């Protein structure tokens, strides 16, 4: 399980223009959209359905790991604490940590790589800012 944390300090210019409830709703939307971006990036860039070898990709045999990646906000997965919003991204497949961290095999991180990717980081901030701006436009 990987954790995406966004500190609203960076987005206060927009966030402070909304009520707390509206701000929380907007950031929740932006975080969920971000989770979907990361999920699809993992599936596309790291968990290939294509046969063959690539040093950065795990190639699907059954597709179980590929289809198990989830990004959730509900059910206690989404947290707010001191202006930090947290989204958890993960899988319940038992052999996932083996590949992510290299337990007994060469590591081929797929979840942590999604968060470390600079383009994804920019996209996450863009999506949260868009959600905040959309909420402002509705007021």
Q: What's the end-to-end separation, in Å?
A: 36 Å
Largest beta-sheet characterization: 4 strands, antiparallel
Question: What is the H/E string?
Answer: EHHEEHEEEHHH
Question: Into which percentage range does the β-strand content fall?
Answer: 15-25%
Helix content: 40-55%
Mean pLDDT: 82
Low-confidence stretches: 74-78
* Outline type: elongated
Q: If helices are DSSP runs of H or I spanning 4 or more residues, what is the number of helices?
A: 6
Radius of gyration equals 17 Å
Brief overview, please?
With 139 residues, the protein is α+β, with helices and mostly antiparallel strands.
Describe the protein in words.
Helix 2 packs antiparallel against helix 6 (118-138). The chain has helices at 12-15, 20-46, 64-68, 96-101, 111-116, 118-138; strands at 2-7, 47-48, 58-59, 70-72, 79-81, 84-90. The relative contact order is 0.24. Helix content is 50%, strand content 17%. It has 6 helices and 6 strands. It starts with a strand and ends with a helix. The protein is elongated and about 50 Å long. Mean pLDDT is 82; it is low at 74-78. The chain has one domain (2-138). A hairpin with a 2-residue loop joins strand 5 and strand 6. The strands form 2 sheets. Strands 1, 4, 5 and 6 form a 4-stranded antiparallel β-sheet that branches. It is of the alpha+beta class.
């Amino acid at each position: 399980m990987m954790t995406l944390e966004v500190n609203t300090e960076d987005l206060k210019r927009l966030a402070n223009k909304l009520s707390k409830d509206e701000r929380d709703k907007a950031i929740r939307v932006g975080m969920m959209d971000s989770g979907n971006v990361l999920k699809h990036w993992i599936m596309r860039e790291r968990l290939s359905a294509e046969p063959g070898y690539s040093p950065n990709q795990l190639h699907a045999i059954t597709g179980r790991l590929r289809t198990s990646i989830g990004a959730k906000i509900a059910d206690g997965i989404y947290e707010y604490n001191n202006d930090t919003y947290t989204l958890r991204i993960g899988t319940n497949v038992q052999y996932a940590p083996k590949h992510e961290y290299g337990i007994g095999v060469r590591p081929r991180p797929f979840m942590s790589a999604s968060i470390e990717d600079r383009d994804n980081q920019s996209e996450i901030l863009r999506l949260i800012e868009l959600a905040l701006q959309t909420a402002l436009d509705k007021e």
